[in-house]
Hints:
Blueprint: E1 3-8, H1 13-24, E2 28-38, E3 43-44, H2 51-61, E4 65-70, H3 76-92, E5 97-99, H4 106-116, E6 122-124, H5 132-141, E7 145-152, H6 167-172, E8 186-192, E9 202-213, E10 220-231
Parallel strand pairs: 1-2, 1-5, 2-4, 5-6
Antiparallel strand pairs: 2-3, 7-8, 7-10, 9-10
Helix pairs in contact: 1-5
Amino acid sequence: MKQKAILHWSGGKDAALCLNRIKNNSDFEIAKLVTTLSLPFHRISMHGVRESLLDAQAINIGLPLEKLFLPENPSMEIYEKAFTAMLINNRKEGLEQHVFGDIFLEDIKTYRENLFVPLSLTPVFPLWKNPSLDLAYEFIDHGFKAIVVCVDDRKMRMEFAGCEFNRDFLKSLPNGIDPCGENGEFHTFVYDGPVFQMPVNFMKGETTLKEYKNQHTGEIFGRFWFCDLINE
Length: 232
């Protein structure tokens, strides 16, 4: 019997690649997807993708979806309280394994481990320490299709938002940009591939710039271009 696990689903390529690897060769079976969304906007946190498209992903993949709604720019205290409550509720259902698409950021991996150990839960990292370029090609070569929905204005041009994540995209990346965007340079929305029963249909909308400010000082700490996706 395979252990049932939760996949922390961002809607992007790394999560989809985790799901594909687990489906093909793993001691785990994904029982549900969990996604964090912005409560004011009903969009996937950081990615900016509409809740309706997230729903379409889950339906077309064929897995249950649990949504964790949070305020815009929540404090760590608010985030951890809501996140921990979700973990505990799922542990009551026998779901103690949690899958993440982290690749090489040691501080994030350590944070997750420190959060999970006191709860007797196990974080699982199928992509950990795999070279980013190899993962990017694995994603493409397995027939996945994704669109870039968010780019960091400090590192990439507006024109990258709305691009297909393919070999041409990888070739066009500026120097220093991780091929999987592991440092937060860009985020993607996966709409087709081997884990989907059918593609997710959408249209590209406007590309807009959003600034993130410190709630106390008003200082801008991030600027991101978002390509809006609209259900067809």
